[in-house]
Amino acid sequence: MPLFLLLVSISVVLISGGALWQSWQHELQENERLVKNQSLALSRQAQDTFLQVQITLQEIARNADDIFSSPGHYAGTQGLLARQKALLPQLNGLFVFDANGISVANSAPGPLPAYSNGDRDYFSWHRRHDNQQMHIGHVIRSRSNNEPVIPVSLRLDDAEGHFRGVALGTVRVDYFRQYYDYFEIGEHDVLGLTHRDATMLYVRPFADRLTNHSMAHTPLYQKLLKVSPTGSGTWRSPIDGITRIFGYAMVPHYPLVAAVGIDRDALRKAWLRTNLGIICLNLLMLMLVMLFGLLLLRQLRLMLENQAELLRARDELTYANHRLQDLALIDSLTGLANRRQFDIYLEQCIERAATTGVPMSLIMCDIDYFKRYNDTRGHVAGDACLRRIADILKSLAQRNGDVVARYGGEEFAFVLPATDASAALALAQRILAAVRAAALPHASTELAEKIVTLSIGVSTFSIGSNADSLVHDADQALYAAKRNGRNQIVTRSPTVAAQR
Protein backbone atom coordinates (compact mmCIF):
# COMPACT_ATOMS: atom_id res chain seq x y z
CA MET A 1 0.00 0.00 0.00
CA PRO A 2 2.72 2.59 0.79
CA LEU A 3 4.40 1.76 -2.51
CA PHE A 4 1.09 2.21 -4.34
CA LEU A 5 0.53 5.60 -2.71
CA LEU A 6 4.06 6.62 -3.54
CA LEU A 7 3.63 5.60 -7.17
CA VAL A 8 0.32 7.46 -7.45
CA SER A 9 1.83 10.58 -5.87
CA ILE A 10 4.87 10.44 -8.13
CA SER A 11 2.60 9.94 -11.15
CA VAL A 12 0.51 12.98 -10.23
CA VAL A 13 3.63 15.08 -9.71
CA LEU A 14 5.27 13.90 -12.95
CA ILE A 15 2.16 14.35 -15.09
CA SER A 16 1.36 17.76 -13.64
CA GLY A 17 4.96 18.87 -13.65
CA GLY A 18 5.43 17.67 -17.22
CA ALA A 19 2.35 19.55 -18.40
CA LEU A 20 3.48 22.72 -16.64
CA TRP A 21 7.00 22.36 -18.04
CA GLN A 22 5.65 21.98 -21.57
CA SER A 23 3.44 25.01 -21.02
CA TRP A 24 6.44 27.07 -19.85
CA GLN A 25 8.57 25.92 -22.77
CA HIS A 26 5.75 26.83 -25.16
CA GLU A 27 5.53 30.26 -23.51
CA LEU A 28 9.27 30.77 -24.01
CA GLN A 29 9.09 29.70 -27.65
CA GLU A 30 6.14 32.01 -28.33
CA ASN A 31 7.96 34.96 -26.80
CA GLU A 32 11.13 34.13 -28.72
CA ARG A 33 9.07 34.30 -31.91
CA LEU A 34 7.48 37.53 -30.68
CA VAL A 35 10.77 39.35 -30.00
CA LYS A 36 12.24 38.07 -33.25
CA ASN A 37 9.26 39.44 -35.22
CA GLN A 38 9.40 42.73 -33.32
CA SER A 39 13.11 43.07 -34.08
CA LEU A 40 12.34 42.47 -37.77
CA ALA A 41 9.75 45.26 -37.60
CA LEU A 42 12.32 47.63 -36.06
CA SER A 43 14.84 46.54 -38.69
CA ARG A 44 12.40 47.29 -41.52
CA GLN A 45 11.61 50.72 -40.05
CA ALA A 46 15.33 51.53 -39.77
CA GLN A 47 15.95 50.33 -43.33
CA ASP A 48 13.18 52.57 -44.71
CA THR A 49 14.42 55.51 -42.64
CA PHE A 50 18.00 55.37 -43.88
CA LEU A 51 17.07 54.39 -47.44
CA GLN A 52 15.11 57.63 -47.81
CA VAL A 53 18.07 59.61 -46.50
CA GLN A 54 20.44 57.74 -48.82
CA ILE A 55 18.30 58.56 -51.88
CA THR A 56 18.24 62.22 -50.85
CA LEU A 57 22.03 62.36 -50.39
CA GLN A 58 22.58 60.68 -53.74
CA GLU A 59 20.37 63.34 -55.35
CA ILE A 60 22.49 66.03 -53.68
CA ALA A 61 25.66 64.33 -54.95
CA ARG A 62 24.32 64.38 -58.53
CA ASN A 63 23.79 68.15 -58.21
CA ALA A 64 27.10 68.78 -56.45
CA ASP A 65 28.66 70.51 -59.48
CA ASP A 66 25.87 73.09 -59.53
CA ILE A 67 26.07 73.61 -55.78
CA PHE A 68 29.84 74.16 -55.74
CA SER A 69 30.00 76.16 -59.02
CA SER A 70 27.15 78.59 -58.22
CA PRO A 71 27.80 80.09 -54.81
CA GLY A 72 25.68 83.06 -55.80
CA HIS A 73 22.61 80.89 -56.00
CA TYR A 74 22.78 79.79 -52.37
CA ALA A 75 19.20 80.82 -51.67
CA GLY A 76 17.94 78.51 -54.40
CA THR A 77 20.08 75.64 -53.12
CA GLN A 78 18.93 76.27 -49.56
CA GLY A 79 15.33 76.19 -50.69
CA LEU A 80 15.88 72.89 -52.51
CA LEU A 81 17.47 71.30 -49.42
CA ALA A 82 14.73 72.70 -47.19
CA ARG A 83 12.03 71.17 -49.40
CA GLN A 84 13.79 67.81 -49.41
CA LYS A 85 14.13 67.94 -45.60
CA ALA A 86 10.45 68.77 -45.24
CA LEU A 87 9.57 65.56 -47.07
CA LEU A 88 11.51 63.43 -44.56
CA PRO A 89 10.33 63.82 -40.92
CA GLN A 90 13.32 61.83 -39.67
CA LEU A 91 15.78 64.53 -40.77
CA ASN A 92 17.13 67.21 -38.49
CA GLY A 93 18.95 68.84 -41.41
CA LEU A 94 20.71 68.49 -44.77
CA PHE A 95 24.19 69.94 -45.29
CA VAL A 96 26.90 70.26 -47.92
CA PHE A 97 30.51 70.90 -46.82
CA ASP A 98 33.60 71.65 -48.87
CA ALA A 99 36.90 69.82 -48.51
CA ASN A 100 37.79 71.90 -45.42
CA GLY A 101 34.52 71.24 -43.64
CA ILE A 102 33.10 74.72 -44.30
CA SER A 103 29.37 74.78 -44.99
CA VAL A 104 28.51 75.39 -48.65
CA ALA A 105 24.76 74.86 -48.32
CA ASN A 106 22.22 73.57 -45.81
CA SER A 107 18.50 73.25 -45.27
CA ALA A 108 18.29 75.81 -42.46
CA PRO A 109 17.13 79.38 -43.16
CA GLY A 110 19.51 82.26 -42.69
CA PRO A 111 23.20 82.75 -43.39
CA LEU A 112 25.65 79.86 -43.51
CA PRO A 113 27.56 79.16 -40.27
CA ALA A 114 31.22 80.14 -40.25
CA TYR A 115 32.52 77.17 -38.23
CA SER A 116 34.13 74.08 -39.76
CA ASN A 117 32.85 70.52 -39.40
CA GLY A 118 36.16 69.08 -40.53
CA ASP A 119 36.75 67.71 -37.01
CA ARG A 120 33.73 65.39 -37.12
CA ASP A 121 34.37 61.63 -37.32
CA TYR A 122 32.27 61.22 -40.45
CA PHE A 123 34.30 63.93 -42.21
CA SER A 124 37.58 62.24 -41.32
CA TRP A 125 36.14 58.89 -42.45
CA HIS A 126 35.38 60.21 -45.94
CA ARG A 127 38.84 61.79 -46.20
CA ARG A 128 40.33 58.32 -45.64
CA HIS A 129 37.93 56.34 -47.87
CA ASP A 130 37.84 57.29 -51.55
CA ASN A 131 34.54 55.56 -52.38
CA GLN A 132 30.89 56.50 -52.64
CA GLN A 133 29.80 54.29 -49.74
CA MET A 134 27.31 55.93 -47.43
CA HIS A 135 28.58 56.28 -43.87
CA ILE A 136 26.40 56.01 -40.74
CA GLY A 137 28.14 57.32 -37.65
CA HIS A 138 27.55 57.31 -33.90
CA VAL A 139 25.16 59.68 -32.16
CA ILE A 140 26.39 63.28 -31.94
CA ARG A 141 24.94 66.59 -30.78
CA SER A 142 23.93 68.87 -33.65
CA ARG A 143 25.88 72.13 -33.63
CA SER A 144 22.86 73.95 -35.03
CA ASN A 145 20.25 73.03 -32.37
CA ASN A 146 22.04 70.67 -29.89
CA GLU A 147 19.63 67.82 -30.72
CA PRO A 148 21.05 64.24 -30.62
CA VAL A 149 21.33 63.02 -34.21
CA ILE A 150 22.77 60.15 -36.21
CA PRO A 151 25.01 61.50 -39.01
CA VAL A 152 24.46 59.93 -42.45
CA SER A 153 27.01 61.14 -45.00
CA LEU A 154 28.25 60.70 -48.56
CA ARG A 155 31.62 61.64 -50.02
CA LEU A 156 31.63 64.23 -52.82
CA ASP A 157 34.38 64.16 -55.46
CA ASP A 158 35.28 66.55 -58.25
CA ALA A 159 35.54 65.55 -61.91
CA GLU A 160 39.07 64.22 -61.36
CA GLY A 161 38.04 62.04 -58.41
CA HIS A 162 39.59 64.28 -55.75
CA PHE A 163 37.88 64.86 -52.43
CA ARG A 164 35.58 67.85 -52.78
CA GLY A 165 33.52 67.64 -49.61
CA VAL A 166 30.68 65.83 -47.85
CA ALA A 167 26.91 65.68 -48.20
CA LEU A 168 25.35 65.14 -44.78
CA GLY A 169 21.91 64.26 -43.50
CA THR A 170 21.34 64.15 -39.74
CA VAL A 171 18.65 61.73 -38.55
CA ARG A 172 16.90 62.69 -35.35
CA VAL A 173 17.26 60.13 -32.54
CA ASP A 174 13.86 61.33 -31.35
CA TYR A 175 12.38 59.94 -34.58
CA PHE A 176 13.17 56.42 -33.35
CA ARG A 177 11.87 57.25 -29.87
CA GLN A 178 8.52 58.27 -31.33
CA TYR A 179 8.28 55.05 -33.34
CA TYR A 180 9.41 52.82 -30.45
CA ASP A 181 6.82 54.45 -28.17
CA TYR A 182 4.08 52.82 -30.26
CA PHE A 183 5.08 49.44 -28.79
CA GLU A 184 3.56 48.38 -25.47
CA ILE A 185 6.36 46.84 -23.42
CA GLY A 186 6.91 45.79 -19.83
CA GLU A 187 8.74 47.76 -17.17
CA HIS A 188 12.07 46.05 -17.85
CA ASP A 189 11.62 45.25 -21.55
CA VAL A 190 13.89 46.99 -24.07
CA LEU A 191 13.82 48.09 -27.71
CA GLY A 192 17.06 49.17 -29.29
CA LEU A 193 18.98 50.14 -32.40
CA THR A 194 22.73 49.60 -32.38
CA HIS A 195 25.56 50.15 -34.83
CA ARG A 196 27.18 47.07 -36.35
CA ASP A 197 30.31 47.93 -34.34
CA ALA A 198 28.21 47.30 -31.16
CA THR A 199 27.67 50.99 -30.29
CA MET A 200 24.18 51.85 -29.02
CA LEU A 201 22.32 54.49 -31.02
CA TYR A 202 19.00 54.42 -29.16
CA VAL A 203 17.58 52.10 -26.49
CA ARG A 204 14.18 52.41 -24.88
CA PRO A 205 13.77 52.95 -21.95
CA PHE A 206 17.39 53.98 -21.22
CA ALA A 207 17.58 56.68 -23.94
CA ASP A 208 20.44 59.19 -23.46
CA ARG A 209 22.08 57.32 -20.56
CA LEU A 210 23.31 54.53 -22.85
CA THR A 211 23.86 56.51 -26.05
CA ASN A 212 27.13 55.39 -27.68
CA HIS A 213 27.59 52.73 -24.99
CA SER A 214 29.44 49.66 -26.32
CA MET A 215 27.69 46.26 -26.31
CA ALA A 216 30.64 44.36 -27.79
CA HIS A 217 30.93 42.07 -24.74
CA THR A 218 27.36 40.72 -25.02
CA PRO A 219 26.48 37.34 -26.58
CA LEU A 220 24.76 39.20 -29.43
CA TYR A 221 28.08 40.48 -30.74
CA GLN A 222 30.30 37.77 -29.32
CA LYS A 223 28.44 34.87 -30.95
CA LEU A 224 24.93 35.26 -32.35
CA LEU A 225 25.56 37.78 -35.15
CA LYS A 226 28.46 35.65 -36.35
CA VAL A 227 26.05 32.75 -36.87
CA SER A 228 22.90 34.35 -38.30
CA PRO A 229 21.69 37.86 -39.29
CA THR A 230 18.43 37.24 -37.40
CA GLY A 231 17.56 35.12 -34.40
CA SER A 232 16.97 35.05 -30.67
CA GLY A 233 18.78 34.24 -27.45
CA THR A 234 18.63 34.64 -23.69
CA TRP A 235 21.31 36.30 -21.59
CA ARG A 236 21.85 38.48 -18.55
CA SER A 237 22.20 42.16 -19.40
CA PRO A 238 25.52 43.67 -18.28
CA ILE A 239 23.77 47.04 -17.92
CA ASP A 240 21.15 46.31 -15.25
CA GLY A 241 21.73 42.59 -14.49
CA ILE A 242 18.27 41.55 -15.75
CA THR A 243 17.97 38.33 -17.75
CA ARG A 244 16.03 38.90 -20.96
CA ILE A 245 14.86 36.95 -23.99
CA PHE A 246 16.26 38.86 -26.97
CA GLY A 247 15.31 38.90 -30.62
CA TYR A 248 17.64 40.59 -33.10
CA ALA A 249 17.77 41.42 -36.81
CA MET A 250 20.48 43.06 -38.88
CA VAL A 251 19.20 45.97 -41.00
CA PRO A 252 19.61 44.95 -44.66
CA HIS A 253 22.24 47.00 -46.58
CA TYR A 254 23.16 49.10 -43.52
CA PRO A 255 25.59 48.55 -40.61
CA LEU A 256 22.80 48.48 -38.05
CA VAL A 257 21.17 45.91 -35.76
CA ALA A 258 17.69 46.12 -34.23
CA ALA A 259 17.04 44.25 -30.97
CA VAL A 260 14.08 43.60 -28.65
CA GLY A 261 14.37 42.17 -25.13
CA ILE A 262 11.68 40.80 -22.78
CA ASP A 263 12.27 40.47 -19.03
CA ARG A 264 12.27 36.70 -18.46
CA ASP A 265 11.50 36.97 -14.73
CA ALA A 266 8.47 39.17 -15.40
CA LEU A 267 7.37 36.72 -18.09
CA ARG A 268 7.68 33.83 -15.64
CA LYS A 269 5.67 35.67 -12.99
CA ALA A 270 2.91 36.39 -15.50
CA TRP A 271 2.94 32.75 -16.60
CA LEU A 272 2.72 31.59 -12.98
CA ARG A 273 -0.26 33.88 -12.35
CA THR A 274 -1.98 32.42 -15.41
CA ASN A 275 -1.28 28.83 -14.37
CA LEU A 276 -1.81 29.30 -10.64
CA GLY A 277 -5.24 27.63 -10.79
CA ILE A 278 -3.80 24.53 -12.46
CA ILE A 279 -0.97 24.36 -9.94
CA CYS A 280 -3.39 24.67 -6.99
CA LEU A 281 -5.69 22.02 -8.46
CA ASN A 282 -2.77 19.62 -8.87
CA LEU A 283 -1.63 20.28 -5.32
CA LEU A 284 -5.16 19.68 -4.03
CA MET A 285 -5.36 16.39 -5.94
CA LEU A 286 -2.03 15.34 -4.50
CA MET A 287 -3.15 16.26 -0.97
CA LEU A 288 -6.35 14.21 -1.36
CA VAL A 289 -4.38 11.20 -2.54
CA MET A 290 -1.98 11.55 0.37
CA LEU A 291 -4.85 12.00 2.87
CA PHE A 292 -6.58 8.88 1.58
CA GLY A 293 -3.32 6.99 1.83
CA LEU A 294 -2.71 8.19 5.38
CA LEU A 295 -6.15 7.00 6.45
CA LEU A 296 -5.40 3.56 5.06
CA LEU A 297 -1.93 3.44 6.56
CA ARG A 298 -3.29 4.38 9.97
CA GLN A 299 -5.01 1.00 10.14
CA LEU A 300 -1.69 -0.77 9.62
CA ARG A 301 0.47 1.42 11.80
CA LEU A 302 0.09 -0.38 15.14
CA MET A 303 0.85 -3.76 13.62
CA LEU A 304 3.87 -2.40 11.78
CA GLU A 305 5.13 -0.58 14.87
CA ASN A 306 4.91 -3.75 16.96
CA GLN A 307 6.68 -5.73 14.29
CA ALA A 308 9.36 -3.07 13.99
CA GLU A 309 9.86 -3.07 17.76
CA LEU A 310 10.40 -6.82 17.74
CA LEU A 311 12.85 -6.52 14.87
CA ARG A 312 14.73 -3.74 16.66
CA ALA A 313 14.98 -5.83 19.81
CA ARG A 314 16.25 -8.80 17.80
CA ASP A 315 18.80 -6.65 15.96
CA GLU A 316 20.02 -5.07 19.18
CA LEU A 317 20.44 -8.49 20.75
CA THR A 318 22.27 -9.81 17.70
CA TYR A 319 24.55 -6.78 17.67
CA ALA A 320 25.24 -7.16 21.39
CA ASN A 321 26.11 -10.83 20.92
CA HIS A 322 28.45 -10.04 18.05
CA ARG A 323 30.01 -7.27 20.09
CA LEU A 324 30.56 -9.58 23.05
CA GLN A 325 32.11 -12.19 20.77
CA ASP A 326 34.44 -9.58 19.34
CA LEU A 327 35.40 -8.36 22.79
CA ALA A 328 36.03 -11.95 23.88
CA LEU A 329 38.40 -12.68 20.98
CA ILE A 330 40.14 -9.33 20.21
CA ASP A 331 42.85 -7.58 22.21
CA SER A 332 41.50 -4.08 22.90
CA LEU A 333 44.89 -2.33 22.83
CA THR A 334 46.40 -3.71 19.63
CA GLY A 335 43.40 -5.00 17.70
CA LEU A 336 45.12 -8.39 17.35
CA ALA A 337 43.64 -11.72 18.33
CA ASN A 338 43.76 -12.16 22.10
CA ARG A 339 45.03 -15.16 24.10
CA ARG A 340 41.61 -16.88 24.03
CA GLN A 341 41.32 -16.69 20.25
CA PHE A 342 44.97 -17.83 19.98
CA ASP A 343 44.32 -20.95 22.05
CA ILE A 344 41.17 -21.86 20.08
CA TYR A 345 42.80 -21.35 16.70
CA LEU A 346 46.02 -23.16 17.65
CA GLU A 347 44.03 -26.27 18.69
CA GLN A 348 42.13 -26.19 15.37
CA CYS A 349 45.36 -25.92 13.36
CA ILE A 350 47.04 -28.77 15.27
CA GLU A 351 44.04 -31.04 14.71
CA ARG A 352 44.11 -30.24 11.01
CA ALA A 353 47.88 -30.86 10.79
CA ALA A 354 47.59 -34.16 12.65
CA THR A 355 44.80 -35.29 10.31
CA THR A 356 46.30 -34.15 6.98
CA GLY A 357 50.01 -34.45 7.76
CA VAL A 358 50.55 -30.89 6.46
CA PRO A 359 53.14 -29.10 8.64
CA MET A 360 52.37 -26.02 10.70
CA SER A 361 54.59 -23.67 12.71
CA LEU A 362 54.44 -21.25 15.60
CA ILE A 363 56.48 -18.06 16.07
CA MET A 364 56.76 -16.42 19.50
CA CYS A 365 58.10 -12.83 19.72
CA ASP A 366 59.07 -10.76 22.74
CA ILE A 367 60.07 -7.05 22.78
CA ASP A 368 63.59 -6.75 24.18
CA TYR A 369 63.94 -4.82 27.45
CA PHE A 370 60.33 -3.64 27.27
CA LYS A 371 60.03 -3.15 31.06
CA ARG A 372 62.88 -0.64 30.88
CA TYR A 373 61.09 1.05 27.96
CA ASN A 374 57.96 1.42 30.12
CA ASP A 375 59.93 2.59 33.15
CA THR A 376 61.84 5.17 31.10
CA ARG A 377 59.14 6.52 28.78
CA GLY A 378 55.94 5.74 30.63
CA HIS A 379 52.98 3.47 30.01
CA VAL A 380 51.37 5.72 27.38
CA ALA A 381 54.49 5.50 25.23
CA GLY A 382 54.67 1.78 26.01
CA ASP A 383 51.13 1.25 24.74
CA ALA A 384 51.97 3.22 21.59
CA CYS A 385 55.03 1.01 21.07
CA LEU A 386 52.91 -2.15 21.42
CA ARG A 387 50.40 -0.83 18.85
CA ARG A 388 53.21 0.03 16.43
CA ILE A 389 54.76 -3.45 16.73
CA ALA A 390 51.29 -4.97 16.29
CA ASP A 391 50.78 -2.99 13.06
CA ILE A 392 54.13 -4.26 11.72
CA LEU A 393 53.25 -7.87 12.56
CA LYS A 394 49.77 -7.56 10.98
CA SER A 395 51.33 -6.25 7.78
CA LEU A 396 53.49 -9.40 7.55
CA ALA A 397 50.57 -11.84 8.05
CA GLN A 398 49.76 -11.92 4.35
CA ARG A 399 47.98 -15.28 4.04
CA ASN A 400 44.33 -15.74 4.93
CA GLY A 401 45.05 -18.50 7.45
CA ASP A 402 47.88 -16.71 9.31
CA VAL A 403 46.82 -15.30 12.69
CA VAL A 404 48.78 -12.80 14.79
CA ALA A 405 47.90 -12.70 18.49
CA ARG A 406 48.96 -10.79 21.55
CA TYR A 407 50.10 -13.66 23.76
CA GLY A 408 51.04 -11.72 26.87
CA GLY A 409 52.16 -8.25 27.95
CA GLU A 410 54.88 -7.66 25.34
CA GLU A 411 54.73 -11.12 23.77
CA PHE A 412 53.21 -11.83 20.37
CA ALA A 413 52.56 -15.09 18.53
CA PHE A 414 52.13 -16.11 14.88
CA VAL A 415 50.04 -19.23 14.16
CA LEU A 416 51.11 -20.43 10.69
CA PRO A 417 49.07 -23.31 9.21
CA ALA A 418 50.57 -25.18 6.23
CA THR A 419 54.04 -23.77 7.01
CA ASP A 420 57.23 -25.83 7.41
CA ALA A 421 60.29 -24.90 9.47
CA SER A 422 62.19 -23.14 6.68
CA ALA A 423 59.19 -21.01 5.69
CA ALA A 424 58.56 -20.13 9.33
CA LEU A 425 62.21 -19.13 9.76
CA ALA A 426 62.02 -16.96 6.63
CA LEU A 427 58.98 -15.15 8.03
CA ALA A 428 60.71 -14.74 11.40
CA GLN A 429 63.65 -13.12 9.63
CA ARG A 430 61.30 -10.69 7.87
CA ILE A 431 59.69 -9.86 11.22
CA LEU A 432 63.06 -9.19 12.83
CA ALA A 433 64.15 -7.01 9.91
CA ALA A 434 60.88 -5.07 9.74
CA VAL A 435 60.99 -4.14 13.44
CA ARG A 436 64.62 -3.08 13.09
CA ALA A 437 63.76 -1.02 10.01
CA ALA A 438 61.04 0.80 11.96
CA ALA A 439 63.87 2.20 14.15
CA LEU A 440 61.68 2.92 17.17
CA PRO A 441 63.93 4.71 19.73
CA HIS A 442 64.79 2.70 22.88
CA ALA A 443 67.37 4.57 24.95
CA SER A 444 67.42 2.08 27.85
CA THR A 445 68.18 -1.06 25.82
CA GLU A 446 71.51 -2.79 26.45
CA LEU A 447 71.99 -3.44 22.74
CA ALA A 448 74.37 -1.34 20.68
CA GLU A 449 71.56 -0.03 18.46
CA LYS A 450 69.32 2.08 20.67
CA ILE A 451 66.14 0.94 18.96
CA VAL A 452 63.29 -1.45 19.74
CA THR A 453 64.16 -5.06 18.76
CA LEU A 454 62.61 -8.51 19.12
CA SER A 455 63.74 -11.89 20.37
CA ILE A 456 62.02 -14.66 18.39
CA GLY A 457 61.47 -18.36 18.96
CA VAL A 458 60.23 -20.72 16.21
CA SER A 459 58.83 -24.24 16.56
CA THR A 460 57.27 -26.61 14.00
CA PHE A 461 54.61 -29.24 14.62
CA SER A 462 55.65 -32.87 14.47
CA ILE A 463 53.53 -36.01 14.73
CA GLY A 464 52.71 -36.69 18.37
CA SER A 465 52.90 -33.02 19.36
CA ASN A 466 50.06 -31.08 20.90
CA ALA A 467 49.34 -27.41 21.56
CA ASP A 468 51.19 -27.36 24.88
CA SER A 469 54.32 -28.97 23.45
CA LEU A 470 54.34 -26.67 20.41
CA VAL A 471 54.02 -23.57 22.62
CA HIS A 472 56.62 -24.98 25.01
CA ASP A 473 59.12 -25.54 22.19
CA ALA A 474 58.56 -22.02 20.79
CA ASP A 475 58.80 -20.52 24.27
CA GLN A 476 62.05 -22.37 24.99
CA ALA A 477 63.46 -21.16 21.68
CA LEU A 478 62.40 -17.60 22.57
CA TYR A 479 64.15 -17.70 25.94
CA ALA A 480 67.23 -19.19 24.29
CA ALA A 481 67.27 -16.15 21.98
CA LYS A 482 67.07 -13.88 25.02
CA ARG A 483 69.89 -15.73 26.78
CA ASN A 484 72.04 -15.55 23.66
CA GLY A 485 71.90 -11.75 23.60
CA ARG A 486 68.43 -10.90 22.25
CA ASN A 487 67.61 -9.29 18.87
CA GLN A 488 67.79 -12.73 17.21
CA ILE A 489 65.91 -15.88 16.19
CA VAL A 490 66.21 -19.35 17.69
CA THR A 491 64.41 -22.41 16.29
CA ARG A 492 63.91 -25.83 17.84
CA SER A 493 65.14 -27.51 14.65
CA PRO A 494 68.64 -28.78 15.35
CA THR A 495 69.68 -28.04 11.76
CA VAL A 496 69.16 -24.29 11.94
CA ALA A 497 71.41 -22.04 13.99
CA ALA A 498 70.48 -18.80 15.73
CA GLN A 499 70.00 -15.84 13.34
CA ARG A 500 70.91 -12.25 14.00
Structural class: alpha+beta
In round numbers, the mean pLDDT is: 86
Give the ordered list of helices and strands: HHHEEHEEEEHEEHEEEHHEHHEEHEHE
Percent of residues in β-strands: 15-25%
Largest sheet: 6 strands, antiparallel
The total count of strands amounts to: 16
How many discrete structural domains?
Answer: 2
Helix content: 40-55%
**Do you know the CATH architecture of the largest domain?**
2-Layer Sandwich
- Helix count equals 12
EC number: 2.7.7.65
Cofactor: Mg(2+)
Domain GGDEF: 358-494
Organism: Duffyella gerundensis
Explain the overall architecture.
Helix 9 packs across helix 10 and helix 10 (379-396) crosses helix 11 (421-438). The chain has helices at 2-62, 64-69, 74-87, 121-128, 173-180, 219-227, 264-329, 339-356, 370-377, 379-396, 421-438, 467-483; strands at residues 91-98, 103-106, 135-136, 140-141, 148-157, 163-172, 190-195, 200-204, 230-236, 243-250, 256-263, 361-367, 403-406, 411-416, 454-460, 489-491. It is of the alpha+beta class. Helix content is 50%, strand content 19%. The model is unreliable at 494-499 (pLDDT under 50). The strands form 3 sheets. Strands 1, 2, 3, 4, 5 and 6 form a 6-stranded antiparallel beta sheet that branches. A 5-stranded antiparallel beta sheet has the order 8-7-11-10-9. Strands 13-14-12-15-16 form a 5-stranded mixed beta sheet, sandwiched between helices. It has 2 domains: 1-311, PAS domain (Beta-Lactamase, 2-Layer Sandwich); 339-491, Reverse transcriptase/Diguanylate cyclase domain (Alpha-Beta Plaits). Pathway: Purine metabolism; 3',5'-cyclic di-GMP biosynthesis. Residues 358-494 form the GGDEF domain. Its cofactor is Mg(2+).
